[in-house]
Amino acid sequence: MSVTADLPRFQQLQRDFAAHVRDPESHPAPADVEPRRMAIYRTLFYNNVEGLLASNFPVLRAVTPDERWHALVRAFYRGHRCETPYFPRIAEEFLNYLENERAELPGDPPFMRELAHYEWVELALLIADDPESDPLLDPNADLLQHPPVLSPLAWRLAYRYPVHQIRADQLLDSEPIQVTTLAAYRNRQDKVGFLETSPVVDRLLVLVGEQPSLNGQQLLEQIAAELNHPEVGQFVIAGAAALQRLLDLEIVLGGRVSG
Questions:
Q1: What is the DSSP track for 12-64?
Q2: For the chain, what is the domain count?
Q3: Both 102 and 48 in a single domain?
Q4: Are strands 252-256 and 148-150 parallel, antiparallel or unpaired?
Q5: Which helix (H) or strand (E) holds 196?
Q6: Which residues are CB-contacts of 248 (< 8 A; sequence separation ≥ 6)?
Q7: 55 and 157 co-located in one domain
Q8: Rounded to two decimals, what is the model's pTM?
Q9: By CB atoms within 10 Å of each CB, which of 49, 85, 237, 251 scores lowest?
Q10: Residue 63 belongs to domain spanning
């Protein structure tokens, strides 16, 4: 017996309507809805979702041929069960579909999932809640003498492909040898930016998160030791400039001082 057989008539109609809108090839339209009107609903619903995804993932859309793009969106629209009613969260649902549900298909660009994640990060930071104030944070503290405080709205990213460089006229044929590392951030003016980070700055961001009790000099000396750098003092001076750059971008918010 059908699961919907015991539902009230109006709920059966709702389910039949939704099933047809999502997958008209597998589910016939409700018999008592005019075909012309049903076609309008199908078009409006799909165009809303497709337009939303195209605006949230503009580069992915640009590098994907029309036929392949619409097949991708329709597969998501047809088969993925969204867990949110909020439009700004649909991009995350699409990313979840790409990463966990959709099998890789011949012709997929190898960077597709990483590019989608990179584009999602911008929206995710834009709609993220403002962090609570930290009473021990001093934005003017000497970052060499105090532990740097990483912004909650700064995310370290690592990709196999340089996703920030991909354009419709600039695709990649092979996987680069070196991993691309980025810092994504939202500043106090609610502007989202991306900073391509060197291996040293990327390692610094990792250590700031993992060892929040160490001051900037201790962190930089640790990295210098890991690299067997011959001039630790010069390394720390260069690292201090990197910390200042992170502070200017609001990736680092300041130093933690004692209460």
A1: HHHHHHHHHHH-TTTSPPPTTS-HHHHHHHHHHHHHHHHHHHHHHSHHHHHHS
A2: 2
A3: yes
A4: antiparallel
A5: strand 192-196
A6: none
A7: no
A8: 0.87
A9: 85
A10: 3-108
